[in-house]
Amino acid sequence: MKEVYHYLNLSLQTSGDLDKDNRESKKQGLLVNCAGSINTSKRHKSENISGRADYYLIYVTAGNLLFSNGKSALRLFAGDVIILPPHTAYMQQLDNDGGLNYLWLHFTGGGVDEALREYGIKLYPFINKTSPSNHLQTRFQRLFDCFIKNDKFRERDLSASLEKLLIELARAIVNEEKPRVSLSKSINYINNHYNTQIKIPDLAKMDGHSMTRYNLHFKEQMGMPPTKYIIKLRMNMAIELLESSDLSIYQIGEMCGYEDYNFFAKVFKQHTGLSPKKYKEQLIK
Length: 285
Description:
It is a single chain. This protein is an alpha+beta fold. Helices cover 45% and strands 21% of the residues. The protein is built from 11 helices and 9 strands. Strands 1, 2, 3, 4, 5, 6, 7, 8 and 9 form a 9-stranded antiparallel β-sheet that branches. Helix 3 runs antiparallel to helix 4 and helix 6 packs across helix 7. It is globular. The N terminus is likely disordered.
């Protein structure tokens, strides 16, 4: 899978510029600086030791992201939202082969603290956990549309869209008294053994759940059923091997956990739209 980055910027500001804008925006409500989305399957790490001068919101839609402020670390899963206050050091890392999708937003304004307090949205290191049936992605898309229009109403439109996004987040936040069901043992096992034969009942037993309960909570946390997650990991590995090695397609299929080449080819085509052979031929052209 190729990395896909979607980035929209209202103004290319330096940290000093943002500090100045933050001071001058005390009388203004909510101001959007930039926003975007990331879809990647490659391991990577990024950090900012001094933090940004504005607020930084991250909403994970699939996969999981390791996040740290240099003192403590936490892992964000699908549905998790964090908001860093200005000048908060951070490090974010995709440290597994499962792929990662998340939406992000940088914003400021004199009305931010009041809005977050009113809507019951907490700042990092607290994780705002949302229900699976939320409309946050739709709100992000509305905000992206505001950027594209680029007319004289854009800044005011962005401010209104940010307010609606925060309201939608407030509606979607799950009751804090209901803790997230732990699936850490099985997810770690999948990430390390996805190219072997894995049985879903065995995964459910690892975390002490019934099959029904396990499938339900896995989809809530990872954005897809466990079988689809395993296939995604295998296909990411197959694509990487096709692009970077001289191994035969049969060998690649076996290394990805498929002893039957025809079945491997069928799954690969369902995932990419091309057979492994066609995919390899396109790389050579």
